């Protein structure tokens, strides 16, 4: 694989990651809305057990969406710019 191919693949991966992050964010918003709708009606032991599993996952998902995902997109953008400069001789 040439460096030009690598450059295009990095751009494609960045674009796919941005799309994935957007779709994940939308899915999480939808899920949060569904949780809010059911919360007044579901207040039993099963809900507490559900929440004990859901809350750690939600915490990790929110961390990814707010910190890790955007940071990795920025990292990729920086690497793409650097590789583009190298390929163009700048």
In short:
With 90 residues, this protein is mainly alpha-helical. Helices cover 89% and strands 0% of the residues. Helix 1 (3-38) packs antiparallel against helix 2.
Q: What does the model show?
A:
With 90 residues, the protein is mainly α. The protein has one domain. The chain has 2 helices and no strands. It has helices at residues 3-38, 45-88. Helix 1 runs antiparallel to helix 2. The radius of gyration is 20 Å and the shape is rod-shaped. It starts with a helix and ends with a helix. The mean pLDDT is 96.
Element-by-element helix/strand order:
HH
Main β-sheet description = none
Count of domains: 1
Number of helices: 2
Query: Structural class given helices, strands, pairing?
Result: mainly alpha
Q: Give the overall shape.
A: rod-shaped
Question: What would the average pLDDT be, to the nearest integer?
Answer: 96
Strand content: under 5%
List the helices and strands and how they pair.
Blueprint: H1 3-38, H2 45-88
Offer a few descriptive terms.
90 residues, mainly alpha, 2 helices, rod-shaped
């Amino acid at each position: 694989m040439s460096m030009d191919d690598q450059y295009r693949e990095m751009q494609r991966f960045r674009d796919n990651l941005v799309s994935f992050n957007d779709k994940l964010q939308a899915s999480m918003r939808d899920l949060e809305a569904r949780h809010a709708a059911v919360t007044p009606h579901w207040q039993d032991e099963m809900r507490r057990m559900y929440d004990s599993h859901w809350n750690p996952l939600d915490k990790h998902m929110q961390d990814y969406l707010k910190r890790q995902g955007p940071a990795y997109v920025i990292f990729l953008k920086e690497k793409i710019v650097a590789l583009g400069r190298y390929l163009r001789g700048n």
